[in-house]
Amino acid sequence: MKGLWIFIIPIIGVLGSCTQGGSVVDQTAVQFTKDTTTVALYLAQNRIDATKLPVGIWFIVDSAANGIRATFNDSIKLKYTARLLSDNSVVEQVTIPKHFVLDSLSFAIQTGLQQFQSGSKGRLFMPSYYSGSSNVIFEFKLTEVKDHQLKLDTIAIDSYLNQHGINAVKDASGLRFTVDTLRVGTNPYLVDDIQVNYTAKNLSDGSIVDQGTSISFNLSGLILGWQIGLQKMPQGSTFTFYLPSSLAYGPKGSGKTIKANANLIFSVKLLKIIHH
């Protein structure tokens, strides 16, 4: 566990390959289910109101801040303590902020840290599937985020907004949005299911890259810009999001229509919320 466990480790299962008869994959799935059940029980017994992400980790924000979020290959500095869930013993501790590149860390930590703004303190609760041998509590302070792409993205988006005379709300995350139709209703939480109409366009040329009508999603499984933006929307409202690539599909893009580091415009109507 000591030293390098927070870096990317090989995972058997969806990120690995099957062995004969799929037995290793089956065993891994069984262990993953066992571990996540153990983590869920620990949280319930200790009355910890943590939020579960689709990848099977939980997070809780202990102290919020207003800095930017780390995404993709941003540079970050962390102070952290890793403890075993089973007995709370410390297996690794860094008391002076240490530099990392986000996408060099384990998938669970990459995914979890995106829920935190620079300056925040929090905890991740991770099954052994990600930590390598044991269920782990990862307590940390995200002391610094140096974005790799966000400044370039927001300069391009703000220029577009100015040129088109659009008065958008500027969020600390880099998201820009306009409230096109505001209704009185509840807002979704990260764990909720949502039903939406949406159209996505490239900021650069206005070409449509995706659209959907009455499409349902779990909010926590969507790109980070949607997670941030949809939680600001009352049910029945229509917003337009101007998403930096770092809150969307980043340096890899998506499919043939969304290129690397593409800034996007989403027109979204929130039709329905199913609270969990």
Protein architecture, described:
By secondary structure, this protein is an alpha+beta fold. The protein folds into 2 domains: 20-146, Chitinase A, domain 3; 150-274, Chitinase A, domain 3 (Roll). Helix content is 20%, strand content 34%. It is built from 5 helices and 12 strands. The protein has helices at 23-45, 107-113, 128-131, 150-163, 224-230, and strands at residues 51-52, 58-63, 75-84, 90-101, 121-126, 136-146, 169-170, 176-181, 193-202, 208-218, 238-243, 264-274. The strands form 2 sheets. A 6-stranded antiparallel sheet has the order 1-2-5-6-3-4. A 6-stranded antiparallel sheet has the order 7-8-11-12-9-10. It is globular, with a radius of gyration of 20 Å. The two termini are 35 Å apart. Mean pLDDT is 89; it is low at 1-5 and 7-22.
Topology:
Blueprint lengths: L22 H23 L5 E2 L5 E6 L11 E10 L5 E12 L5 H7 L7 E6 L1 H4 L4 E11 L3 H14 L5 E2 L5 E6 L11 E10 L5 E11 L5 H7 L7 E6 L20 E11 L2
Antiparallel strand pairs: 1-2, 2-5, 3-4, 3-6, 5-6, 7-8, 8-11, 9-10, 9-12, 11-12
Brief write-up:
The protein is an alpha+beta fold.
Q: What is the number of strand segments? A: 12
- The CATH topology of the largest domain is Chitinase A, domain 3
- Name of the CATH architecture of the largest domain: Roll
Total domains: 2
Helix and strand pattern: HEEEEHEHEHEEEEHEE
Strand residues, percent: 25-35%
Assign a percent range to the helix content.
Answer: 10-25%
Structural class: alpha+beta
Report the major sheet: 6 strands, antiparallel
Mean pLDDT: 89
Subunit organisation of the chains: single chain
Radius of gyration in whole Å, from Cα? Answer: 20 Å
User: How many helix segments?
Assistant: 5
